[in-house]
Write a structure and sequence with these properties.
By secondary structure, the chain is mostly helical. The protein has 9 helices and no strands. It is elongated, with a radius of gyration of 18 Å. It starts with a helix and ends with a helix.
């Protein structure tokens, strides 16, 4: 990796948690320079503008989420246990570390960029649809393996799971009340056990 590539990666790693927590509009150049210890010129010498930093930060945060999920899934053997990884991860974002302490990067980005940043929204929607496809495939594999009932709607179940998972993040983040986490986790447990 060249020095320029290392610097670019450093900027992404240091600003990604800020973009995930404060959002695109809420993250200022001062936030970026403070997090990196670099000057405005150094940041914009590596990125064309704030948009490019935000796009890279979203990609980094999404990748970090994927790495976390895949690492936990590798420890599980059954399809049901693999689905429970999502419940475990989304039920406890605080345990994931500072990069994702702001919550799910897909939910955060889609919510904020909905009407303000079409390119960033498109990346977040692409990540959401990829997530839906991965969950749908996992459920379909569980059906094929005989672990889940043959009449389970894999795609419908995937969409329902995502809505409940994002609901955990939304309710807990908005209210600070962990009782909502418990209710939604219980609903997810019931859904997964019923497959």
């Amino acid at each position: 990796m060249s020095k320029a590539e290392r610097t670019k990666e450093f900027i992404i790693q240091k600003t990604a948690p800020i973009f995930n927590k404060k959002g695109y509009a809420g993250t200022s150049l001062s936030d970026m320079t403070e997090a990196t210890g670099l000057t405005k010129g150094s940041i914009y010498g590596n990125f064309a503008d704030k948009d490019e930093v935000a796009m890279a930060a979203f990609a980094y945060n999404s990748s970090l989420m994927g790495v976390t999920i895949r690492a936990e899934m590798a420890k599980r053997s059954s399809y049901r246990e693999k689905l429970m990884v999502y419940v475990d991860v989304y039920g406890n974002f605080a345990a994931l570390g500072s990069s994702l302490e702001g919550g799910c990067p897909i939910l955060n980005t889609i919510t904020e960029a909905d009407d303000t940043h079409p390119e960033l929204k498109a990346k977040a929607v692409e990540a959401l649809m990829g997530w839906k496809e991965r969950l749908t495939s996992l459920i379909a594999e569980g059906i094929s393996a005989g672990e889940f009932k043959a009449d389970v709607d894999a795609e419908g179940t995937a969409v329902t799971m995502i809505a409940l998972l994002e609901g955990i993040v939304l309710f807990v983040k908005a209210t600070g009340k962990s009782t909502y986490r418990k209710h939604l986790v219980n609903s997810l447990n019931t859904l997964i056990k019923g497959l």
